[in-house]
Amino acid sequence: MAALCVGFISPAHAAPDPEKLYETHCLSCHAPNRLGGMGPTLLPESLARLKRADAYKAIAEGLPATQMPGFKEMLKEDEMQVLTAWIYTPNKIPPKWDAEDITASHIVNTENVGLPAKPVFKADPSNVTLVVEHGDHHISILDGDVMEPFHRFQTRYALHGGPKFTPDGRFVYWASRDGWITKYDLWNLKVVAEVRAGINTRNVAVSSDGQYVMVANYLPHTLVALSGKDLSLVKVIPVVARNGKTSRVSAVYDARPRASFVAALKDIPEVWEIPYDGRPVYKGLVHDYQYKEAIAEPGPLPVRQIVLDQILDDFFFDQSYNYLMGASRDVPKGQVVHMGVGRKIADLDIPGMPHLGSGITWEWTDDKGVTHPVMASPNLKDGHIQVIDMKTWKTLKVIPTAGPGFFLRSHEETPYAWADVFFGKNRDVMHVIDKRSLEVVADLKPEPGKTATHVEFDRYGKYALVSLWEMDGALIVYDAKTLKEVKRLPMKRPVGKYNVWNKTRLSAGTSH
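The structure corresponding to this sequence follows.
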């Protein structure tokens, strides 16, 4: 009878070698020493919230909403059991990446520093779009007026979290899964500097004044502040809760109206706000009205720890950045946090696995002519899009979709929101939703049987850009008004697209 408990080894044959199994089946995605690459880090501190039985199931059957395949047809049961047990053991060489390591990795291309502040290309620099091609780790730069690429260059392996621009759109920063941060001069088409800020990195944020770049790390458990000028190290911030527990950082965002960074923490029920405008943060207190009663935290980039009832895996801001809407994958209720007073003010009914980081907002008018600010989010687990009234924090409508989706996008100049169906048999469908009626008004199939994903718009909302997420894929340009295809640009597994104007002007139709 087959063993049911993870870790059981049949005495009938020698135990499989988990390190060889890992090298054969896992290393290409999860990297040497299990430090994470295209796939996540597989070390005990990274798996603390995952039960071993669930890890075994993931190895055997794969994971929804990820690229993790199932191995039950390739591996024997005892091989999967041994591999499961092994990833919960400490690495032979304890992972470390501290200030000394960061500083030693720093690279500045001095020949690319101080170049003229004038674009070397003819395209409108405010309507340029970066297209990340994961298939061969390149970025293509697109002229948004004519929808043609005019430059393409190689990046480090497996970018993650999306490029972030300085307010003038000249410089752009991005992160790789294995912690490399790159500063690129978009006007001169040159890499300015690079540094490795972590072992497993989630994303970066750029301060609204361009002075700081903040890095969110899964491993080590740190936030790393870099100089926006040359990526030199400013500060390593250990992510430690008030009870002493450390945490991975899911993501960090620039809350421009608040002149602060805000970080989502994976393992502790706190949200961190880090002002970069010089205003003080006071030790041991959460609420602003208590600040006068405590001693200011010394040094630049102080941390304000907002303690909550539950962990927030992901969150979304309203356009003012006064309200944070967060969700946990383990709890069916989300939370609304008022950033000013630093506490929860409402619950959100958002079951499933909402992808709030891909949420969008717009102004919706009801039958009585009353305008409501609303936000909408796709769901990584359930086939629906949830629309929430940001005045009452109640669900306004649940829009059924053909399956779970990853991205939802729109633009101020279009009446439509576009939603992919990234997971499941209908991954080739792109829903077009009328933001007035809150109904799906069109289903597009750019290529039957091929994954269509991640819509973004040009500066003017004239074109909708869809990724055909295949190795021999394409960037498909649609007329955003007629919904007719305009052209296809061949690309290698394109995914994210990032328009300078929309990102620097905080368009309500895209992520910031």
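The helical segments are 18-25, 27-30, 52-61, 77-87, 99-105, 500-504.
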